[in-house]
Amino acid sequence: MREILIAGLGSIGRRHLASLRALGWPHIRLYRTGRSTLPDRDLAGIPVDYDLPTALARRPAAVIVSNPSALHIPLSLDAARAGAHLFIEKPLSHDMIGVAELESLVAGSGATALVGFQLRFNPGLRQMRTWLRGGAIGTVVSARVHWGEYLPDMHPWEDYRAGYAARSDLGGGVLLTLCHPFDYLRWLIGEITDVSAVESRRDGLRLSVDTCVDVTARFACGASVCVHLNFVERPPNHQLTVIGTDGTITWSHADSAVHRYCAASRRWETRRAPDGFEREWMFFDEMRHFLACLRGEERPHCTLADGRAALEVTLAARRALAAARRSALAS
Questions:
Q1: Which of 23, 52, 65, 117 is the most buried (most CB within 10 A)?
Q2: What pLDDT score was predicted for residue 300?
Q3: Considering just the CA atoms, what is the radius of gyration of the chain in Å?
């Protein structure tokens, strides 16, 4: 197997590098622009290209696209034209430009393309999906997501105002940065249709991007969902509740445990994460899955179509925010 090229060496690119190393993958090359704010001590001995055409001319087997969100599609298009398989970090992009072209290229070449929503590999959410698909709480009526995380603490080694999450030109903002719920809600419950959104502007971060947003949406099945995302909460808090006609399921990212209340028995059932589980396990399992896809042993759990669908919901929420701002000014 030829080399895997990692394009983008921020925190997520380093995680993917660590996973490849832990899995024993020997053929790794880096494409760098030199703008990373992290130290290079963990990269010693790995071959590096600073020019993308040169890196792609080496015909890598796959490219891990882990640069800022706004740059995902241009780099992915170049990699697809070079015949590489793709692992594209979430979100797929910050707009829809080039997405259809990328889908066409991948479909035409038969390449593997995986979108990096690692929470699909969370044991609690996987158990929740099993329960929901088995009708364990009857018909789903509504869901609620709460995810708050203090932006300056996400990358403490850099000025948060200069990081991609704080910059609209790089695809920042809380909706795009914390867009995981728009993927896992589809995966758990179904397609999302109607979307509306409002925001708070009292966070004190003084950024030009969205920082505290409440999204209300409806699933194609008729159930509703409220998603709250913010860049200000301390300590971090990420929870999901799904309410059904016959019970309730809750999940917390803090311990990845999932709890089911059965209305008939009036009892709670708890499934805890495996002993020793930690966040890095999800990235490791995701990379193990990607390598299995490259070998033809598995098919992508999160496809380009999934990445597109999550992006469409995210962008619908951004449009709803823009409309709300115009409406507020008009009033």
A1: 65
A2: 98
A3: 20
- The residue among 13, 40, 26, 65 whose CA lies nearest residue 283 is 13
CB atoms within 10 A of CB 154: 17
- Selection from 149, 161, 177 nearest residue 233 by Cα: 149
When divided into structural domains, the chain yields a total of 2
Q: Is the pLDDT of residue 330 over 80?
A: no
Give tens-digit pLDDT for 110-131.
999 999 999 999 999 999 999 9
From residue 88, alpha-carbon distances to 134, 279, 282 in Å are 31, 19, 16
* CATH number of the CATH domain containing 48: 3.40.50.720
DSSP 262-284: ETTTTEEEEEPPPTT--THHHHH
Instruction: Tell me, yes or no, whether 53 lies in a domain.
Output: yes
Tally the C-alpha atoms within 13 A of residue 39's C-alpha that lie toward its C-beta: 3
Structural domain harbouring 50: 4-117+284-302
Per residue in 226-279, pLDDT (tens digit) is: 999 999 999 999 999 999 999 999 999 999 999 999 999 999 999 999 999 999
* 307 is a domain residue: no
| Same domain, residue pair 150 and 92 | no
